[in-house]
Amino acid sequence: MRHSLLVESKPSAVNDICGRILSQVEQSGYSREDVFAVHLAIEEAFVNAVKHGNKMDASRTVKIEYTAGPEEIEIWLTDEGAGFDPDSVPDPRSGQNIYKPEGRGLLLIRSYMDEVSFNERGNSIRMVRYRHRPRALEDEGVEGT
Q1: CATH number of domain containing 67
Q2: Residue 55 has pLDDT above 90, yes or no
Q3: Cα separation of 76 and 23, whole Å?
Q4: Mean pLDDT, to the nearest integer, of 23-29?
Q5: What is the three-class DSSP state of 78?
Q6: Residue 10 has what DSSP assignment?
Q7: Which of 30, 62, 96, 111 is 20 to 30 A from 130, alpha carbon to alpha carbon?
Q8: Does residue 128 lie in a domain region?
Q9: Structural domain boundaries, residue 37
Q10: 139 pLDDT band (50/70/90 cuts)?
Q11: Is 73 in contact with 27 (CB distance < 8 Å)?
Q12: For residue 75, which of 120, 96, 44, 32 has the smallest C-alpha distance?
């Protein structure tokens, strides 16, 4: 079943969001590792939506949709911002970027979720965590972890 929330664009709202979604994830019998991964990804994606997408404007909203099925957890977050090009975010692990704060949240999301994609505009992220990682994803591994 797909759930949908429309949340005020303020950082403190992440606690209620995590509580709702993680409750579903736990009830669906996912491991503590899965719960941790989803929690971290939600926090990072939501804070990015509030801070970078909606520019800390509490009059804007973030739409969250999610499913916690028997085999996968799928989450979409959409802000009201102009969007961005995720490929233009510098890798925070290389060169002069090591000491810059940009890109760390996106790196964490990509490290903890099995699939991460964005809409064309760049204001909506889709994240998927599988109960059992597909063989191809296990073979690829996650660079730098």
Answers
A1: 3.30.565.10
A2: yes
A3: 17
A4: 95
A5: strand
A6: -
A7: 62
A8: yes
A9: 3-140
A10: low
A11: no
A12: 44
The rounded distance, in Å, linking the Cα atoms of 54 and 112 is 24
Q: How far apart are CA 94 and CA 111, in angstroms?
A: 16
H-helix segments, 28-103: 32-48
Q: Which residue has the tokens 């949908």?
A: 4
What's the rounded Cα separation, in Å, for the pair 30 and 145?
22
Residue 31 amino acid letter: S
Tokens read off for 66: 């999610």
The SS3 of residue 125 is strand
Which residue blocks in 68-116 are alpha helix, DSSP H?
104-112
Predicted TM-score of the model (pTM): 0.89
**Under 8 Å between Cβ of 42 and 21:** yes
Position 145 in a domain: no
Give the whole-angstrom CA distance, residue 25 versus residue 113.
Answer: 14
Please tell me the total count of domains within the chain.
1
